[in-house]
């Protein structure tokens, strides 16, 4: 017999866990159900507590790491001195440049080139794990051996940025930090917004408030041309039809920098890089991942466009890009703002930095086969609809006229240098592990 109290409890439990309407309930089933419900209720409570504790621990840890990162940077006079020394030019009228993304491919090459000619350089990089961070650490070690300070920090860390601009009077910011890669945007769209939109705005806010305001040279991308089929691509061509979220964030960057130019008088130069390759490059890019796979005897996937047309890229060698970046810094006019107001118009420039001679992906593979002396195992598939464009081709007349930009390395010669570096760094039988220092 059920007591009134027990009946009430059962009723309450029934309300909590309603049974399927119309089902006959027998007492034994009900008892089992009740035990199950109790057990479930206690499991779910435990689960919720566990979640709560995990969240609490995670926020504590991230707070601790924020505090320790910030205090490590923000309260040490030794660190202040390091920033000032690294930012100081060693030649008369030299530049003082904050290079974001300095542990990256283009960032590390530019930092070294600037340092070599006597400019002051401070690097900033968040060492994210989009590709193997050990290569980024190796680049940092190389910079460090050249007395270039590279700070592990994120563009979105406002305190860190304002501290940097208060410590050093940077004449220029070379902004190369970004979430790169066209196809990865399908997997992780938020990382593109974090770095290429929020990070960019955070940086521009810091630059706007700096006194004096530096000039900004930054990496846009050939991908902004998107579905443009007028060839070669000129800076005045349509860029309102991006084919990937990556391209859309780079295009947004061009508009965002324009706003800061218009309102605050920041001197802006946007560089549309065309598929940059070379030694110490990005492992996610086709020429790099193909090399690794070919040496390992693994198959490579070659995408092919509609109607069996080969895809083509205006592959551009890193040294040419570095020269274009340095020429952009050297010719950037001054920012005109101070205290949040501009005192006159400042330059806003956009340049293509390409090679002007597109090469198909199968040709890229055959050049690699030749330099590696190994035949590739090729799998040809139709280009997936995940952001790729069929071809790119730069018109570089504007950069030639204003930057004296003149690319001098063709794909054959550039890949030879890349392969030489790859084998010296990883070895021929590598599985991605490094053999020597950079
Ligand atoms: O120029 C640019 O703006 C962009 O250049 C590259 O993007 P992408 O040209 O797609 O370079 P890769 O990823 O190296 O691809 C090169 C070509 O190889 C093809 N590919 C790639 C990977 C693969 O497994 N198979 C394959 O056939 C691609 O479809 C593409 O046609 C960079 O990854 C971007 O960060 C940069 O902004």
TrEMBL record:
Kindly name one Pfam family recorded for this protein. Answer: Epimerase
- Per the record, the major location class is Golgi
Record-listed E.C. numbers = 5.1.3.6
SUPFAM superfamilies for this protein: NAD(P)-binding Rossmann-fold domains (SSF51735)
The record's subcellular location field reads: Golgi apparatus, Golgi stack membrane
Q: Does the keyword DNA-binding apply?
A: no
The entry assigns this protein to a family as follows: Belongs to the NAD(P)-dependent epimerase/dehydratase family.
What protein name is recorded for this chain?
UDP-glucuronate 4-epimerase
């Amino acid at each position: 017999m059920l007591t009134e109290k027990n009946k009430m409890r059962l009723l309450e439990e029934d309300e909590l866990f309603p049974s399927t309407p119309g089902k006959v309930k027998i007492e034994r089933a009900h008892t089992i159900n009740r035990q199950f419900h109790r057990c479930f209720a206690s499991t779910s409570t435990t689960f919720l507590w566990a979640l709560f504790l995990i969240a609490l621990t995670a926020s504590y840890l991230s707070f601790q790491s924020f505090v320790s990162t910030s205090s490590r940077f923000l309260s040490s006079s030794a660190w202040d001195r390091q920033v000032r020394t690294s930012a100081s030019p060693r030649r008369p009228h030299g530049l003082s440049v904050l290079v974001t993304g300095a542990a990256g491919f283009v960032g590390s090459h530019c930092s070294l080139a600037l340092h070599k000619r006597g400019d002051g350089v401070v690097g900033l990089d968040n060492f994210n794990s989009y590709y193997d961070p050990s290569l980024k650490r190796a680049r940092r070690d190389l910079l460090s051996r050249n007395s270039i300070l590279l700070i592990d920090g994120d563009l979105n860390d406002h305190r860190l940025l304002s501290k940097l601009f208060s410590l050093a009077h940077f004449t220029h910011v070379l902004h190369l930090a970004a979430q790169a890669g066209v196809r990865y945007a399908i997997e992780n769209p938020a990382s593109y917004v974090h770095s290429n939109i929020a990070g960019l705005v955070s940086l521009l806010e810091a630059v706007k408030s700096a006194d004096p305001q530096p000039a900004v040279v930054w990496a846009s991308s050939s991908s902004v041309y998107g579905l443009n089929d007028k060839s070669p691509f000129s800076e005045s061509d349509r860029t309102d039809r991006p084919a990937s979220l990556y391209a859309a964030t780079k295009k947004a960057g061009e508009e965002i920098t324009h706003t800061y130019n218009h309102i605050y008088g920041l001197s802006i130069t946007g560089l549309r890089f065309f598929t940059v390759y070379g030694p110490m490059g990005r492992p996610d890019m086709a020429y790099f991942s193909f090399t690794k796979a070919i040496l390992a005897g693994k198959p490579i996937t070659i995408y092919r466009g509609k109607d069996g047309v080969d895809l083509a890229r205006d592959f551009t060698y890193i040294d040419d890009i570095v020269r274009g970046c340095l020429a952009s810094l050297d010719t950037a006019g001054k920012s005109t703002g101070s205290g949040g107001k501009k005192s006159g118009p400042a330059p806003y420039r956009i340049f293509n930095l390409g090679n002007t001679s597109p090469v198909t992906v199968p040709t890229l593979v055959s050049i690699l086969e030749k330099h590696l002396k190994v035949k590739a195992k090729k799998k040809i598939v139709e280009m997936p609809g995940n952001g790729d464009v069929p071809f790119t081709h730069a018109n570089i007349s504007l950069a030639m006229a204003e930057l004296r930009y003149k690319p001098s390395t063709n794909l054959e010669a550039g890949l030879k240098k890349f392969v030489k570096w790859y084998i010296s760094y990883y070895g021929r039988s590598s599985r991605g592990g490094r053999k020597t220092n950079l």
